[in-house]
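Lab notebook, design round three. We kept the backbone fixed and only want residue identities now. Task for the bench partner: fill in a sequence for the structure below.
Input structure tokens:
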């Protein structure tokens, strides 16, 4: 993961830290940024040595202030900014992802931290949705998950009125889990990640699948069932006996299911 241009990826012990590295552009997400994030997240998903990811932004001013939609110059769907793919990857990977919000989280940046499992914010961080002010909106993760996080009325307030919320206000309404001084953000996020790394990966994965299944329809429920099938059921004596009896063309011996 050393050939990225828009992000950096640093693995240390069991923690992967992903940093959006476009501070001069407000850490906005362009097509290249999204592709790199998706690649890094999928590598994180399949690496057995990595247990938790931290997502943050370069510098101390911006976490992420949304997507560069002006890159889209045609009506070809294949050219649309693949931002939803990033949200979906964060939401469905069966490992915790912590957002370390180091500055402004605006528009798609506010959605980005919302879809993460936990959010730690610097005291100077700020949160905002500006869609109706600029002729934009999010009719998916940015509304449904925001409603789940802070409640229907607050989510509508945030989207309709486009107010800026301080880190303290975000904590009060449940938009973030905790706030810390800016110079302590990285250390606190890592400490939390290390704490999560001591928890059962199977339990955390199952819990994350359960939380996301409600909004992910058949794919969410299929992922929960499929992953638990592979990690829980297929290692049982019952599964082994059924597989062996099928291969040997004999009736399964049920007394071997639990022995």
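Proposed sequence:
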């Amino acid at each position: 993961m050393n050939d990225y241009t828009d992000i950096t990826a640093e693995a240390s012990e069991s923690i992967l830290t992903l940093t959006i590295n476009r501070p001069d552009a407000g850490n906005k997400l362009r097509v290249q940024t999204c592709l790199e994030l998706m690649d890094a997240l999928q590598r994180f998903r399949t690496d057995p040595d990595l247990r938790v990811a931290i997502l943050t932004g370069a510098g101390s001013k911006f976490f992420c202030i949304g997507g560069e939609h002006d890159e889209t110059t045609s009506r070809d769907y294949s050219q649309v900014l693949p931002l939803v793919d990033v949200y979906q990857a964060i939401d469905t990977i069966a490992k915790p992802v912590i957002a370390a919000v180091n500055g402004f989280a605006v528009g798609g940046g506010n959605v980005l931290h919302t879809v993460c499992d936990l959010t730690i914010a610097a005291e100077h961080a700020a949160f905002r949705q500006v869609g109706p002010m600029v002729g934009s909106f999010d009719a998916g993760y940015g509304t449904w998950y925001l409603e789940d996080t802070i409640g229907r009325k607050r989510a509508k307030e945030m989207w309709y009125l486009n107010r800026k919320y301080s880190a303290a206000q975000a904590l009060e309404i449940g938009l973030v889990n905790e706030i810390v001084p800016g110079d302590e953000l990285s250390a606190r996020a890592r400490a939390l990640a290390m704490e999560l790394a001591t928890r059962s990966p199977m339990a955390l994965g199952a819990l994350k699948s359960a939380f996301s299944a409600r909004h992910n329809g058949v794919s969410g429920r299929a992922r929960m069932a499929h992953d638990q099938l592979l990690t829980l059921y297929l290692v049982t004596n019952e599964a082994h006996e059924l597989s062996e009896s099928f291969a040997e063309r004999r009736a399964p011996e049920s007394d071997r299911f639990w022995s």
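Keep this in mind before ordering anything: Residues 216-256 form one domain.
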